[in-house]
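Researcher: For the record, we're logging two predictions in this thread. I'll number them. Prediction 1 follows.
Model: Prediction 1, sequence and structure:
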Amino acid sequence: MCARREMVHFGSLEPLLTLHNLRSLIIKITKGFYFSSPMEIKRIATSFPKVETLKLNQSAYSRSDEPSPITVVDLFPFADHCPHLQSLGITFDATSPPEIIRQNVFWDRMSKTILTDLYVGDSHIKDPALFAATLSGVFPL
């Protein structure tokens, strides 16, 4: 397992956030990324409004000895800010769904993306049916 301190942190990605016309970003590294807050995910989503493919080492997070602070709800900014996004790869924690999912308070939300592929890598998913229902409510086909 890889300790959080050995992983690549958000600060390493910040120089790329100025590339607002970026259409594809695929990063594969051995130790994985560590996102410490949902705001980091939101900054990525708002920085790349034209992105079509975004894969951030989606299979490495499980090598960490701590769960990710990023949840399925934290992926919603991609639905709001990335209308061209077709393929997303990111690892997150879906072991304890937030209350917002249990209450279905976001079902009216309509995605602005054309997402067709989601790569969850080694994400920990406790209730696959709830997870699928949540994503289909936010990223409908």
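Researcher: Logged. Prediction 2.
Model: Prediction 2, sequence and structure:
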Amino acid sequence: TIAILFSLLWAGQGQQLVLKELHTLHRWTNLSLGDDQSKGNRFLPVDVDIEYGDEGRHRTFLTIPRLSLVTPFTLATVVPEDNAVVDNPRLEPYPNGEWHVPPNNCSGITSAIRTFIDECWRLWVVDSGQVNSVQLCPPQVLTFDLVKDELVQRHSLPPNSYNPSVSIFTALVVDLAESGSPNRCLGGKAYIADAWGYGLIVFDSLTGRSWRIEHETMKPSTMVGLARSGSSQAGIFTVSLSPSEVKDRFLYFHTLNAFDEVRVSLTLINNETLWKTQNASDVGGHFLTLGTRGIQCESEVMDQSGNLFCSLISLGALISWNERSNYTADDLRVVAYNPHKIKFVTGLKINRNAKGEEELWALSSEPRLFVGGDLAETEVKFQIIGCRTADLLANTPCSVGATDATPTAA
């Protein structure tokens, strides 16, 4: 409730509740996908990524999970001519239209749901293989070279890694080898949260193998008598990693309906042999509950300074916590409050701009879209909002590398 938000503010060294102007890169009132609106091509994106190139050039990526077979494409970029267009910019399929039709041939992209851009100019894509909860193809992890816009690697998840028509992937983060390593840009490990399957999937692209991890902390707080549907029954919803230069690194996550944050050693998670043997049941004590927020978080992401950002459900706020501190209300900070823009955040990313500065980007949607509610034709359905992490932490006006314009008003 709002009372909890006020308690967080006052605990955070007497912060005052002040509206934070975040930069709106794009926003949509029109849900039609493509030029022919008569076909009923409605789209509802769930993830976002911003790729920065030379001279400030940028590309905006969106995943659009297929709700029906008529959806023309499921992974999109804003067309280059509309990069500076705020309202209803046009979208085009990535890498091209041939990858998206037909949606059930399993050699293209069936239903993209999560993306991640690494430091080697590669786009990682998680394809659920589902259309409106029907499992048409096995889930897969695709890696594209963003310089050539060509496929680098494809990995289909083995049958024991997911639950057909049940698994829904709500987070993806990729970890590369240490700087200077000869294999740094040849491989990488992808960590995928399976919220409705209650598990974590790890894919090692260098070996081409993947494994699944399950633990009680990955299940929703209460499961008795309830089906696996609705947000109250979403399990592990997020996944974040300690900065790459930290000696003892951890993987962080939480379930959607819990107030707690959990961490586990990344070395343990990366031990493929352990999770494929009987000894996996002996590591329960390594999943440590850090503490409680007293409130629900949805999407989260950690920067390279160890600051974990999380969006608060229904409160229009972003909070941050540094992994070197305790996990209590005294250690949580509200770094942005804007109920006009921070709504239901389904995608939260940190990308580096052309100057090497970290920026936080969020895909914020109107919650009524997910429950069949009616929205006015001119009402903003979803928007991409951003701010440099330095501006969030220092409480200075937001700026982003994608444009020199000032933040747009709510």
